[in-house]
Recover the amino acids of this structure.
């Protein structure tokens, strides 16, 4: 289980380090072009994915903190019970690390710092995200792959 907790901790530390660099070097709303499809920006999201509930009046901050902490406690239980299942445990560790990374932002700043902006020829811009969000997404993909593998074997 320590390996999986170490992976979750690494996600948290990398996420918070990247956010510290961004908040230290960028003003809120500032953007710098890296490639034709990738910008580094500094945005803050009081909502969840795609800014859902961002203008809900403030209650969502505490709701998302409580939800992420409850989910992390549940994921810790899953890791204790299933630590020998490598892909499943890796997925859970990634999701848990990402959730905790974003909780730290909500507690410390009242919003999640997003800094990765992807776009296609300025016609479509994907909502900005961060390393914690990326870890959560990778974890979710791994959970799906693990379940597909389990169904095929069963």
């Amino acid at each position: 289980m320590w390996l999986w907790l170490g992976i979750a901790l690494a996600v948290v530390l990398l996420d918070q380090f990247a956010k510290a660099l961004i908040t230290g070097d960028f003003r809120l709303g500032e953007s710098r072009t890296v490639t034709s499809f990738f910008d580094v920006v500094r945005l803050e999201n009081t909502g969840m994915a795609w800014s859902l509930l961002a203008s809900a009046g403030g209650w969502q901050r505490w709701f998302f903190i409580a939800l992420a902490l409850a989910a992390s406690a549940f994921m810790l239980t899953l890791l204790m019970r299933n630590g020998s299942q490598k892909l499943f445990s890796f997925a859970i560790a990634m999701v848990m690390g990402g959730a905790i990374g974003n909780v730290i932002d909500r507690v410390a700043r009242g919003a999640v710092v997003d800094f990765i902006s992807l776009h296609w020829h300025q016609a479509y811009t994907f909502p900005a995200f961060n390393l914690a969000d990326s870890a959560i997404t990778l974890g979710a993909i791994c959970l799906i792959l693990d379940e597909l593998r389990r169904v095929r074997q069963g």
In short: Residues 35 and 59 are 37 Å apart (CA to CA). The beta strands are 31-33, 38-45, 112-120, 124-125. The chain has a mean pLDDT of 92.
